[in-house]
Amino acid sequence: MKTATYLLTAVIVLVAAAACDPIDTPVPQRESDAKYVGKAVGNFTAEEWYPGGLLGTTDNITEGCYEDEAPAVSEQGLITQFNHGEMFFERNVTLNTAPFKGLGPASVRKSCLDCHPAYGHGKWQATYEANTARSFGNGYLLVVYYANQPGSNDGAYVSEVTGMPQTMAADPFLPPIDESGISLLWLPVTAMESGLPMRFPDGEVYSLQYPELTIAKEAFNTDPNPYDTAQEKGLTMGFRLESTIGIIGTGLIDALSEDAIREQYRAEAPYVELNPAFWDKAANDFAASAFYNNWQAGANGDGILADGSHVARGEYKPVKRFTYAMTRGSLQDGAGANAIWNITNVSRPDRPYLYTTVAWARKMSETPSVISAIRQEGSASPYFVDVNKDGSVTDDEIAEAVFALLSPTTNQFDNPYHNFEPEMTADQFYDFMVWHRGLSIPRARNLHEEDVQRGKELFSEMGCASCHRPSWKTGEDNYWSPAMNEGKPLPRYANQTIWPYSDFIQHRLYMKNDIHGSWCRTTPLWGRGLSMLNTGASDRLHDCRARTVVEAIMWHAYSRQSDAYGSAEKFYNLSKEDRDAVVKFIESI
Predict the structure, then answer these.
(1) What is the rounded CA–CA span in Å between residue 257 and residue 277?
(2) Structure confidence at residue 131 (pLDDT)
(3) CB contact set of 522 (below 8 Å; sequence gap of 6+)
(4) Can you spell out the DSSP letters for 258-273?
(5) pLDDT tens digits for 9-58?
């Protein structure tokens, strides 16, 4: 938990307000930066020292800075809610022990922190393990789909397991996917598909690796087994890895307006193919599926979300901008708000259904060991069915109850076999959202140094800034909030100039064993240079395949089809000194 808040003033004075430490001691700035911070230096403006604007940047750049609250949190009187909400991210959720109870019968992880070490990007892993001592920081999520053809990374998600497949289950249930049947191999790239040598012109060698993931048919505890479904459809099974993204500064991304994002699409559309699922080229406007699917247009252009929340005309339209696949348009009903439910399976008033599948519930109701354990244990666990131990309840009746308990179609707050209460209250969820929307971005470093300024110049000249757009201006930030928290304030970032280095648009890189669906959102670069300090790792790209910035850039040049091939080829041809300058620039912003 972060111990201090760093407020930025017009004269750039550090003010530390300790939340946990008994001594109010501000973290000192780096000596080399101190006299330059907040000033225009070389080709950097004064604003660029503060990537999240004055409301969204912490001046702390030491270990733990990813956990800092944004100045907006304190200025808007939300620090108590922020600190309370942070607990729900950091603590392990248990099956039935207060105050952090509510772990579902099947889950992906026991806590959010398991996947987001120190609030950052997940770490590279040699094996897929969700629940062992050595798995901390494993941000990997499985992607299981019906491949359109063998080896393809395109195809629909299987319906037998959840979209974020679960490999954990509460006793006596079996996990939807047994981890012992998961094989993860890391293979070296021996030749670039583009033809570029794996040695820079000056002789320096670089190496690339990629994952090969397989899951055995026997690992699936579902009925039907997805392998059988794939065979019936004439398809093959496909598997990919995706790692979690760092969650710092996400509230600032939420504050970007629909109009600003639309103009970015329009600026890029003449020069690069954009995902037709998001951009209607003929209409030169968003496709219908670019908006978060809970949005429904109301009278006179106002909006109503699926949970009944009302949004006045012109105030908010949730254009998708979060996750690699751009599946979410709002931080409050996407990203973390959704993940606190579907990762741990913790229910709340607006989430009365379990994140499971009918295929898994059916398989558990058919499994003799599950039926036997429930008959023996009775109501010892919240997910055991109350049964008469004299044998008057039949196995078929227990199976019926098990299916009802585990099915995603059952409202758990109105379950005839075990009537549950919400495991996360509306007030707790509100505090969680204050925390999530209140996370800051660390300030930039080293901007006064000549090699960093040279790196910025080259970054732009190579065309990297076309996708990694440097700056944006947030809108009025008239955010949407869930109906159960309507009217309660969240941190706001109105009219801030921010520097995320992303266009929030999907592109294709055509990497070996590429991301599922081929399209991937441009990852924001802000704050990533502090990953090693905060998380102990600096792995990059959607599955942590890149161990360094250089590897990440060269993956952009793996195929000549890559949207970024031209820029990466230019990097390849730079001198060693200039390559190092580009890397240092990326690590400094």
Answers:
(1) 20
(2) 73
(3) 467, 468, 502, 503, 504, 505, 506, 507
(4) HHHHHHHHHHHTTTS-
(5) 332 223 233 333 333 333 444 557 789 999 999 999 999 999 999 999 99
Residue 379 CA to residue 381 CA, distance in Å, equals 5
pLDDT band for 307, please (50, 70, 90 cuts).
very low
Give the 3-state secondary structure of 131-168: CCHHHCCCCEEEEEEEECCCCCCCCCECCCCCCCCCCE
Report in angstroms the alpha-carbon separations of 284 from 172, 267, 280, 476, 479.
54, 10, 6, 25, 26
Structure tokens at 319: 């254009």
End-to-end alpha-carbon separation of the chain, Å?
A: 24
Question: What is the rounded distance in angstroms from the CA atom of residue 12 to the CA atom of residue 6?
Answer: 10
Q: What are phi and psi of 172, to 5 degrees?
A: -100, 15
**Once rounded to an integer, what is the mean pLDDT over residues 255-279?**
96
Whether the Cβ atoms of residue 547 and residue 553 lie closer than 8 Å to each other? no
Number of domains in the chain: 1
Work out the angle between the directed axes of helices 395-406 and 358-365 (0-180°, nearest 10): 160
In one letter, which amino acid is 295? W
- Return the bridge partners of 57, or none: 441
**Does 395 fall in a domain?**
yes
Per-residue three-class SS string for 302-320: CEEECCCCEECCCCCCCEC
pLDDT tens-digit series, residues 401-431: 899 989 999 999 998 877 788 999 999 999 9
Q: Give the three-state DSSP class for 457.
A: helix
Give the pair of three-digit tokens for residue 538.
């600096």
CB contact set of 351 (below 8 Å; sequence gap of 6+): 341
Peptide bond into 172 cis (omega under 30): yes
Is the distance from CB of 468 to CB of 462 less than 8 angstroms? Answer: no
Residue 403 in domain: yes
Measure the CA–CA gap between 284 and 216, rounded to whole angstroms. Answer: 45
Q: Which residues are within 8 A (CB) of 456 and not within 5 positions of it... i.e. 6 or more apart? A: 43, 44, 585
Residues 188-229 pLDDT 10s: 999 999 999 999 999 999 999 999 999 999 999 999 999 999
| Collapsed DSSP state (helix, strand, coil) of residue 498 | strand
- 401 found inside a domain: yes
How many whole angstroms separate alpha carbon 522 and alpha carbon 33? 29
- 98 contacts: CB under 8 Å, gap ≥ 6: none
Q: Give the pLDDT band (50/70/90) at residue 336.
A: confident
Say how far residue 421 (Cα) sits from the centre of its chain. Answer: 28
Tens of pLDDT, residue by residue over 556-583, are 999 999 999 999 999 999 999 999 999 9
Q: Which of 99-108, 464-473, 548-557 has the least mean pLDDT? A: 99-108
Rg of the Cα trace of the chain?
Answer: 25
Domain hosting 373: range is: 369-414
Calpha distance 331→117 (Å, rounded): 20
Instruction: Tell me whether residue 392 is in a domain.
Output: yes
